[in-house]
Design a protein that fits this description.
Blueprint: H1 3-14, E1 16-21, E2 26-39, E3 42-49, E4 55-60
Antiparallel strand pairs: 1-2, 2-3, 3-4
This protein binds zinc ion.
The site of zinc ion has 8 residues, from loops.
Length: 71
């Protein structure tokens, strides 16, 4: 895996998101558990509710940073 790709994945895993949790029945803070798939238009992540630990998939529609080409 390339360095810039790795740092992107680490960046994705570092943050948390406020998402609707079906178990809690409200918006709760979800931790980034795992990057499932990286698409040109966004990133599919496995998120975990920090309150009840329920896992869910979540699509982050922020496009991945363009790769650094030769400079
Ligand atoms: Zn929950």
């Amino acid at each position: 895996m390339e360095d810039d790709e790795l740092s992107f994945l680490e960046e994705q895993l570092a943050g948390t998101e406020l998402l609707a949790c079906v178990t809690c029945g409200e918006d709760t803070l979800h931790a980034h558990l795992e990057v499932l798939e990286v698409y040109p238009v966004g990133t599919e992540l496995l998120m975990q509710c920090t309150r009840c630990q329920t896992e869910r998939m979540w699509m982050d529609w922020t496009p991945p940073k363009p790769k650094a080409y030769h400079n």
